[in-house]
Amino acid sequence: MDNYSIVGKPIPHLDAVEKVKGNAVFTSDIKLNGMLFGKILRSSVPHAKIRNIDISQAVKLKAVRAVITSKDTPLVRYSISPTWADKLVLADQKVRYIGDEIAAVAAVDEESAEEALSLIRVDLEELPGVYDPFEAMQSEAPLLHDGIVSNISKTLRMECGSVAEGFARSDIIMEDTFKTHAQSHCSIETHCCVATCSATDEVNLWVTTQAPHPLRQRLAMTLKIDVAKIHIMTPFIGGGFGSKIDLEPAQAISVLLAKKTGKPVKIEHSRKEQFIATRMRHPTVTHLKFGVKHDGTIIAKQANVVMDNGAYNSHGPAVLAYNNVMFSTLYRVNNIKYEGRLVYTNKNWGGACRGYGDPQASFAQEVMLDMIAERINMDPIDLRLKNANIPNQVTANAVKITSCGLKECLTEARKVSGWRTKKAAGKKYRGLGIASMIYTGGGSIGSGLNYSGATMQMNPDGTLQLLMGALDIGQGSNTILTQMAAEIMAVEPETIRLTTADTDTTFPCMGTFGSRVTYCGGKAVVEAANGLKKKVLENAAEMLEANPDDLEMKNKSIFVMGTPEKAVTYAEIGASSFYKKKEPLVAHGYYNGPEVSPDFDPVTYKGYPAPALVFGTHLAEVEVDPTTGKVEVLNFVAAHDLGRAINPLLVEGQIEGGAVQGIGWSLMEDVKFENGEILNPNFHDYKMLTIKDIPKIIPLMIETIDPNGPFGAKGIGECAMVPTAPAIINAIYDAVGVRIKELPATSEKIFKGLKEKRSK
Amino acid sequence: MDNYSIVGKPIPHLDAVEKVKGNAVFTSDIKLNGMLFGKILRSSVPHAKIRNIDISQAVKLKAVRAVITSKDTPLVRYSISPTWADKLVLADQKVRYIGDEIAAVAAVDEESAEEALSLIRVDLEELPGVYDPFEAMQSEAPLLHDGIVSNISKTLRMECGSVAEGFARSDIIMEDTFKTHAQSHCSIETHCCVATCSATDEVNLWVTTQAPHPLRQRLAMTLKIDVAKIHIMTPFIGGGFGSKIDLEPAQAISVLLAKKTGKPVKIEHSRKEQFIATRMRHPTVTHLKFGVKHDGTIIAKQANVVMDNGAYNSHGPAVLAYNNVMFSTLYRVNNIKYEGRLVYTNKNWGGACRGYGDPQASFAQEVMLDMIAERINMDPIDLRLKNANIPNQVTANAVKITSCGLKECLTEARKVSGWRTKKAAGKKYRGLGIASMIYTGGGSIGSGLNYSGATMQMNPDGTLQLLMGALDIGQGSNTILTQMAAEIMAVEPETIRLTTADTDTTFPCMGTFGSRVTYCGGKAVVEAANGLKKKVLENAAEMLEANPDDLEMKNKSIFVMGTPEKAVTYAEIGASSFYKKKEPLVAHGYYNGPEVSPDFDPVTYKGYPAPALVFGTHLAEVEVDPTTGKVEVLNFVAAHDLGRAINPLLVEGQIEGGAVQGIGWSLMEDVKFENGEILNPNFHDYKMLTIKDIPKIIPLMIETIDPNGPFGAKGIGECAMVPTAPAIINAIYDAVGVRIKELPATSEKIFKGLKEKRSK
């Protein structure tokens, strides 16, 4: 029964007023007594041996309290998985990209810390660098890491069915190569942390992170500190988009400096540091080969992917696996082959970035489908409908799909956009493009770990508290999860007191990534709230001498159905349980799933255990200026199967934000490198959409009510980024016949394409 | 079985290093962005009508952000109980003592706030004041409060048995009057708070409090804010001694100022404010009448007490009831009569202060016993032994005693002090005095509310977290309660991660007062730890395929008894439960007791439901300088029945601290008034003991192992204050034959006594 009173309602962010009024406290706002400021000396060359670091002049500076180098660290390498560990908190022996951490300083003010950095003398022996992954794979290429025989960090091969046989049975074979580029997350808040570390190694860390509990583990491992001594707290977070999942060297450095000085130490990244020395979206080169029947049935598909890792692994190997699993799982295809290589280069390293390898896969596959549709003279939407995933499907690569609304996304987007009419009208320089996507709707990185916990409590005064490990990084999960709890407890969401993501007081949670919070956090909250509701109803039944099944909850009271005057208030129940029965009213919820099948391959992610999968279709309408090649996105329909929209207003926000970030990546956002150096590490030279560039975005919410999701919901956060680029690229082709196969689709490239076309 | 490895060990304070190094964060250390400073305008006259308050000049000051008066408050009166409510956060119509809050200012710095105060024009119509409770009881006395017919705030009458009959059966009747004076708590940290209040009324309050959860309730009530919107956090606390239990007007004012300005507001009391405008120990005049047999048996006792309340109630009515219950319960006496009156005067108001009415009772009763012993020519210790309470006694006033070591305290103190030898030697100007006490060993204010909660959790990595509502105000409860948890979980206490007293994340707790934390907090922690231990053992049994009863815990592992190689570590159990079984390892403990019998009289506290009662005996040896009357305390034996010493080092600290505070009250500490004005509101004129004045204190711990206490423990915090004064006063009499009946026993009084004696 779907007659919910709070779930499904478009409630504004619970913290909106606090943020709008400027009262919300972010990490940057934190000032502690005697707090020092930390700054990091970074490599200015892309590849070099460190011969010597002379800190003698820097430590003499009066305002300086500590200078540290790798000698002050336990020299433990890390990444998101111990098997891929390759990064030191401070470089030892070698630097591998412009931005690599060499030394750090704590001083009483930022200016003195900067001055001290300038006094550190680093004696470097420059080494040849390699910046292109194909060059890096050559045998003569300089190797980035000790003990490796090739710069290929990971090779991934998977075949399901037989592509050879599939291609043989196909009517048409199409092949092409698609390139994507680096994108910076551009969170409005840069990385910031404030650390204290007591004489007995007790660490307090206020930090901009998406994953407090894993960060605690990684900090402990990297610094060789007992994990129980680390307390991580998360003030308000100004966006993440994947950039704040990892341990950031600055976080470990702030703890080391705090330990050495005995004072709190704050390190806040400048925007430039955010560009040059935090992660970015991995560039890829994808060669695709598709075999199809004349009727559009895809018989076989094959991808060869080279992914530019940059200098260190971070999430790279998992991003590559996700690239495979998302490419391979979308559409019903029996014969699939995927070969991927992740290659070190002397550049800023890639990491998790909204979509996690999927936008790259989606761009290649969805543009390819457009090319196929043209070749076989089929409507691109019909082609996708023909091959679309269906509910309860098990794919060739052994992924189990529960709910699936891909077909509904396609047909709804077609209907709402006026696709047929507009296509038929064929207005000059105008075009429509479509692209679809699949993604996890609830995290799961294949390790079997995908946990979220929640505790729900009724206080003696009848008020409610919700403690959860999940955290809101701006996407609105605090509001969404509170709505779920409020629905179950029949109260207004704003009356529930919330505590999130504090490693001392909340249950462990993997964090905010993988579009997992609504699903995993939601399941934990629903379990906790239902547990509490049961206890509260049992108490009420006792007090009212009634059967719990005959009770109804309303207005913070519980009454016997049909006899509203026979009621007890929550305050009475709380007081009675705490003070008379002496039993605290508390319940827990904990989710960690789904089970990982023994057939799951942790290298290729074949048999990937998604708790739920989400689907979506983006449909873009663009106009191209033939004299300049400039693209204007006129209309944008984004249909998403999200199970259930717990809060349509916040879902709209996610869809709009994802679409905008996707349009940026498609048309202008581009981290430009020259010999390993980033040329545009600022918001002047790195172009993002402004409010004037943003088209009308029509979000369509396809509610498939997932059988396992909390209230049937699935995740949405990353999805709206994924199919944006191919939708736009396909629309550009529809408009002017220029096919962009290398992102971004700048005016220059389109203008060049138009010129070439005219000259033919 | 008492073979404990952590309970009973003298472990130093877990936070000692942090405090000694100056890294511990107290409320005063907290600085928030844009924080304003609040200052309070207080009445400079003892009694007046407020005709008008003109803030027009103050608000014009550039640095001032808000000025508030009673008009900005909801005019809700408060005290610790709604039935006694008489205090407004800001005075309206009338001021009743020098210090009464009239208006408050928030400014960008303290100096500007002070300047603004000086610009507020208060038009007062002075009224006659009354400063002596006996004068205040006269019919012509000015009345302090509206609608009252007398300044007597509370009258308390109790009779058990029949004193008339008892006195008739007695061989000897003795009567006398004893006076006590005001004492300031003199916590090293003054009251301080930092408040934020969002546009939607969400309050964050960092505050020096002994009772965060009750404070939350009182703030909500007084400011008419939803209790669920208030978040109270307690940084390190620098002592309380009862002064930080109440809602302090400054706390509510800081919230009001934060709400009005939209900025964080800090208010920190000066030491002068701490003296003149926070609570103090109630002065009393106690007239006693005792009827005894020649053999020392006390047949009947009667007390008439007049307690000086000051201008407002605070804890006054409960302190008076405690004065009765402690007077009446100590010793086995069948016929008891108590008559007490609590009287308003135009002075700073009394409140909870270590001992809570008991030191006043103990002083009168124990000096009286010394006089009786002399009269009947009996050893004072033998007299007390004759009448001492015994285990499992139900007293004439219906109080149930469980464990009782009063006789052991008396005999041990006699033995260790060399009482008999020294008494026999009779060295000139030297004397020995003895006094005993009874007190609650676990809180309970008679309302039936005496709650403490705890949560204990094993993390996926096998580390342990303890969350509890109780808080450490310097006495060491964090260490004590962690020891209990560590004993049960077989780990080192410092490895347990602790979170205390945060209203958002910990179970409700009444707070730190009434010597209740070891007992009530301990019971909650023991229940939580045992609950967790059970779950952990069940998990281990499953993993080891063994019976839980055959398992042993050691070194963060669990192994099969006799087969130490068959073991699982806590980390393995944590990981297995969270990641495989998907069940969080968490358990709760909650105590709220004991039951209040229907026969309990909430006015007189007859039938007072103490969870446990503690007993003690102080034995002082003094030398009096006959030329000056100066008293030197040479030796001090303090024997206390505390059930079990969970941490003897910290118990010693409590006993020494209590004895010193008691000696101070006996000999020098004295809040001196003249027409309602405190003459010595500073540490120069208000004399306290310095390190040179402190005698050798020998603590004797009598472990009676209470049947209900956690590990058999009972509270100790306040006890060591209680019988100090009479022990010293009795020793002075023994030394020089001068009987002090009005505290403090200044050199002047003793010198006068010596002179009078010589002149006789």
In short:
The structure is a homodimer of 760-residue chains. Chain A is α+β, with helices and mostly antiparallel strands. Chain A is built from 19 helices and 28 strands.
Fold and architecture overview:
Two copies of one chain form a homodimer. With 760 residues, the first copy, chain A, is α+β, with helices and mostly antiparallel strands. The first copy, chain A, has three domains: 16-23 and 451-592, Aldehyde Oxidoreductase, domain 4, CATH 3.30.365.10; 31-127 and 188-239 and 244-277, Aldehyde oxidase/xanthine dehydrogenase, a/b hammerhead (Aldehyde Oxidoreductase, domain 3, Alpha-Beta Complex), CATH 3.90.1170; 284-370 and 612-759, Aldehyde oxidase/xanthine dehydrogenase, molybdopterin binding domain (Aldehyde Oxidoreductase, domain 4, 2-Layer Sandwich), CATH 3.30.365.10. Helices cover 29% and strands 25% of the residues of chain A. Chain A has 19 helices and 28 strands. In chain A, the strands form seven sheets. A seven-stranded mixed sheet of chain A has the order 3-5-1-12-9-10-11, with helices on both faces. A five-stranded mixed sheet of chain A has the order 7-15-14-13-8, with helices on both faces.
